[in-house]
Automatic annotation (TrEMBL):
Biological source species: Streptomyces yokosukanensis
Name of this chain's protein: Tat pathway signal protein
Length: 462
């Protein structure tokens, strides 16, 4: 019987603008990254056969989805390119379907074990891995967690919930001051040694079980955020996914929105605006926005604004910015808020607003908002973020042609980087040297000084 041409796959390839030969070459690169040695011989003829209607086997559908996802800058599922769900979707959805406790232990161990940590650090960021499960998965998550049998005899009560929350807040504040490269291994070990035992324990009440799952979700989220700041992006994505699963099991909609917001932030930074918009949109769905406090709503909104700006949706981005401003203005000092939003103040809103305006091409507006952020932030508490803000501010000044002002700002940024171990701070130093490269060996003392100081930071921050 003649095979039916796979029109969906043909259309997706046409959208990439690639020939089948280029698709095959990109496919092989992805296969090599993930260690799929059996697929390294994939050629144009394989792509042609798949378009003609042959169903690929093994890991090929997932790797093709990842290949197309990277090119199109949005998650692609097997079903979207006409592949059967047998095998392919099982692999694509494995992170969502695997037992949460097993995932927590395995992912934690991979970061504690030196060799597995090295492999994970080198893994490429998976755009295809950003595919979210459907509504049924979210609806069933709380019951799945409730019916999961205890893995240990550990009795878990309010004391354990408080312990996890206290440790999470400690690492969160440490991250804001010293950056994600500093101390994250200690958090990974804590997740394996303590948090995993609590998740697998016996709970004193159903309320305690949900509170512990939410606390565990926030701890895993902070591990993801520290990995993100350390520029270990695939590790961060996996932690965020696991944190999202725990939040779903805890039936905590605002927490799930908070994590989806972080995933959108990461996708935007890495240049995947389509995926970022999808994640940011999901962050405000299913009561994630409506049940959140005004401060957290503002955080969700401003990240959504930046993702929309990166995707070229100017009017929607501006509307989201205005809504975020209104939400933060509605936040009251006496509000009962989750500890995870402790960092989001006026300075944070100004920082993200500036980045959105910069993306939209409004350099004057961006510069004003970056300056507002710098003036209103407690620099000693938020050293990492302060350094990054100043780095961006100098970049805008340089873009406007005022290199002298940029150097003055960058001098402050480099001062703030003292003691900071952050991939994002490191990127700021790299950008300083890139912008100043035309001025090297020209006798311009201020540019030479900043260039040398930035070089020293790069030598210090591995």
């Amino acid at each position: 019987m003649a095979r039916e041409r796979n029109v969906k796959l043909a259309d997706a390839i046409a959208e990439t603008g690639w020939s089948q030969q280029k698709v095959a070459a990109a496919f092989v690169r992805v296969a090599a990254e993930v260690g799929a040695k059996e697929l390294l011989g994939t050629s144009r003829s394989h792509i042609a056969m798949w378009v003609a209607g042959t169903q690929p086997s093994g890991r090929a559908p997932l790797i093709l989805c990842e290949t197309l996802s990277r090119r199109l800058q949005r998650p692609i599922t097997p079903a979207e390119i006409g592949f059967s769900v047998l095998g392919a979707d099982a692999v694509a959805a494995s992170e969502w379907n695997v037992d949460t406790l097993t995932a927590l232990v395995d992912l934690g161990r991979s970061d504690v074990d030196l060799e597995r940590r090295r492999l994970l650090a080198g893994a490429a960021y998976s755009v295809g891995g950003l595919v979210l499960p459907g509504p049924q998965w979210w609806d069933e998550a709380p019951q799945r967690a409730k019916s999961r049998p205890a893995a240990t005899s550990r009795r878990v009560g309010a004391a354990e919930v408080s312990a996890v929350r206290e440790m999470t807040e400690f690492f969160s504040r440490r991250d804001q001051r010293h950056g994600g490269m500093d101390g994250r291994t200690a958090l990974y070990q804590y997740l394996v040694d303590d948090v995993a035992r609590y998740v697998g324990g016996t709970f004193t009440s159903d309320g305690t079980r949900r509170a512990l799952l939410a606390a565990a979700s926030e701890a895993v989220y902070v591990a993801g955020w520290m990995s993100f700041d350390a520029s270990r992006h695939e590790a961060a994505r996996r932690y965020f996914t696991l944190a999202l699963k725990l939040a779903a099991e805890a039936d905590d909609a605002p927490l799930a929105g908070h994590i989806l917001r972080a995933m959108a932030h990461q996708a935007t930074d890495l240049g995947h605006p389509g995926a970022a918009v999808d994640l940011a949109t999901a962050s405000v769905e299913r009561k994630r926005y409506t049940l959140a406090t005004p401060r957290e709503r503002a955080l969700l909104g401003v990240v959504q604004a930046r993702s929309l700006a990166a995707d070229g949706q100017k009017r929607a981005a501006i509307a989201a910015l205005l809504r975020a401003e209104d939400d933060l203005a509605a936040a009251d000092v006496g509000d009962e808020e989750p500890s995870r939003v402790w960092f989001f103040q006026r300075a944070s809103l100004a920082h993200e607003t500036a980045r959105t305006l910069w993306t939209l091409g409004d350099l004057d507006g961006a510069l004003q908002e970056f300056n507002n952020s710098v003036l209103t932030r407690k620099a000693d508490t938020f050293s990492r973020t302060h350094a990054v803000t100043l780095g961006y501010m100098g970049a805008v000044q340089a873009r406007k042609g005022n290199v002298e002002a940029a150097c003055h700002t960058w001098a402050q940024a480099l001062d703030a980087m003292e003691g900071v171990q952050s991939g994002r701070a490191r990127e700021a130093a790299v950008n300083m040297r890139r912008v100043l490269s035309p001025f090297r060996n020209r006798g311009i003392s201020v540019a030479a000084e900043i260039d040398e100081r930035a070089k020293a930071v790069l030598e210090r921050v591995a």
